[in-house]
Amino acid sequence: MAPPPSQGLEGLEPRLDALPADRILRHRGIIRPGAAVPARGRRLRLSRPALAAELGPLAEDADLLAHAADRLAARLLPALAVWARDMPGWRLLPLPRRGLPPPSVVPGLFGVLPLAAAADPALAERHRAMAARGWGLALEGLDAAALALVRPAGLPADLLLLRWSPALEDRAPLAALREMPAGRLLLTGCDGAAALAFAAHLGVAATGPAV
Question: How many other C-beta atoms can be found within 10 angstroms of the C-beta atom of residue 192?
Fold first, then answer.
């Protein structure tokens, strides 16, 4: 029988601080389907399945898993910002729940937070502070179900990551998306021709399958 998660807490943070980035980071290219000049760019994300595998039974605690992901994002962000600095196009990097990224003079860097961060009254101020440092803010987690609950055009972010599903082609989600400038949307999890065709129809950028 596996030990309860509490028995593995000792030494967790040193383990996270020593965890090699390539064990838990995944990347996807950013493209613009149907465009004459396909967009270039890169999205890096912390893989929750990979992190859960590293944590073992501790990953059964959702709050602890979120804490681990946040600590890793805070630790990795400065180095990832340097790595992404000279790449072309959009560069999307995981952002910790608190704090600001290092200043950048090169456009195209975005810090990514979960859609739930939009409920934080301080998010608009953080958005402005990031802009002053040369960063955009992206929110991840918008999908067909969320479009029935929120008005995406009013969210305090420069870029919204929209999770692909065939339900996006229904009338109500499609109408909400058509209110948005194409440059504020990135379709994620595009694992087939239907998703890429939808991105081309909206004129938005896209990434490959989610990890």
Answer: 10
**Mind listing the domains of the chain with CATH numbers?**
23-207 (3.20.20.450)
Dihedral over Cα of 134, 207, 18, 51: its sign: positive
With H, G, I as helix, E, B as strand and everything else as coil, classify residue 109.
Answer: strand
pLDDT in tens, 145-168: 999 998 898 899 999 999 999 999
Q: Whole-model pTM?
A: 0.89
Beta-sheet pairing, 136-142 with 159-163: parallel
Q: What type of residue is 113?
A: L
**Separation of CA 195 from chain center:** 18
Instruction: Count Cα atoms within 13 angstroms, Cβ side, for 165.
Output: 11
How far, in Å, CA of 169 to CA of 2, rounded?
44
The answer to whether residues 206 and 31 touch, using CB atoms and an 8 Å cutoff, is: yes
Question: Could you give the C-alpha distances from 139 to 53, 76, 161, in angstroms and in order?
Answer: 25, 19, 6
C-alpha dihedral (184, 189, 191, 192), degrees to nearest 10: -40
Residue 34 Rama label (left phi>0; alpha psi -120 to 50; beta): left
β 109-114/90-94 pair status? parallel
Query: In 30-157, which residue ranges form alpha helices assigned H by DSSP?
Result: 48-55, 62-84, 123-132, 144-147
β-strands 25-31, 41-46 pairing: antiparallel
Q: pLDDT tens-digit profile of 33-75?
A: 877 666 679 999 999 999 999 999 999 999 999 999 999 999 9
